[in-house]
Amino acid sequence: MDTSTMPNLEDATLTLENRVATLTLNRDDVRNILTGTALTDDIVKTANWVNDCHDVSALIITGAGSAFSAGGNIKDMQNRSGIFGGDVETVQKKYHEGIQRIPLAIEKIEVPVIAAINGPAIGAGFDLALMCDIRFASSHAKMGETFVNLGIVPGDGGAWYLQRLIGYQRAAELTFSGRVIDAQEAKDLGIVLDVVDADALLSTATQMARTFAAKPPQALRLTKNLMKTAYDGPLDKFLDKCGYYQGLCHNTEDHIEAVTAFIEKRKPVFKGK
Questions:
Q1: Which domains are seen in the chain, by residue range?
Q2: In sequence order, what are the beta bridge partners of 170?
Q3: Disulfide-capable partner of 1 in 55, 74, 137, 243 (CB 3.0 to 4.6 Å)?
Q4: What is the pLDDT of residue 194?
C-alpha cells in the first residue's frame, strides 16, 4: 500500500495496514482534549486523507493513555481564552473555524469509522465517539454528555448525533442531566456495540474493521453513503440514488469477481476496480 501520501500529524499517530487505518489521539498528558491541542487539525487531515486514499477501507479512532478524550480544555474555559474567549459572535466564529470542523469532516468520511473507546469519553470527546459508525468500549470507559454541568451546550453536534443514535427521550435524559455513564450502561442504551476487556479493545475493533475492509472497496464506500443519507429526503429520491449506485457497481470488475468467486466457491480477490 502507498503510505507516502499520509498526512503529517502533530498530536496523533496514523497507521495503515491491510486497508485499515488507525488514528490514535496522542496527547495523554492532557487526556486527549480536542481544544488547545492540534487534535482537531489532525482529525480533519486524516478524514480528508481517507477519502483521497483508495488503499483505505476502514478507519479506527482511539486514544493513547488513560482517556479516549476528555473533550474541551476546562482551564481555557475558566480563563476565557482560546476558542472560549470573546463575545457571542466571536465565540461562534471560533467554534465554526475550530472544533466544528470535526463533525463536518467525519460526516464526509466515505469508509466505515469505528471508535475504540479506551477510557473516559467526556463532552466533546463523547461526541467524537458518537460521530463514528460503530463504537466498542473498554470495560474501563466512561461517557457523558456533560456540557450542561459547565453551563454550556453541546457545541460540536452532540445533540444532533445522540438522539439519532438512541432516540430523543433517552438522549434528553443524558443531555439534560449531564450524568456520566459506565461502559455497560452505554451498551444497554445502544451507544456502544460491545464492551470488552481493555487489552482486547483494539484487536476487537481491528477485527471488525478488517471484515469490512475485505469487501469490494467501491461498493463499501457507496453503501456507507447510502446508510448516511437514508434519513434525507423522500423514499422515491433515495431509491433513485440506490439504482444509480447499483448501476455503478454492476459495471465494476469487483462485482464480476465477487459473483464468479461465489459460483466457484472460492475467496474473491478485489482490486477496487
A1: 12-213 (3.90.226.10), 217-264 (1.10.12)
A2: none
A3: 55
A4: 98
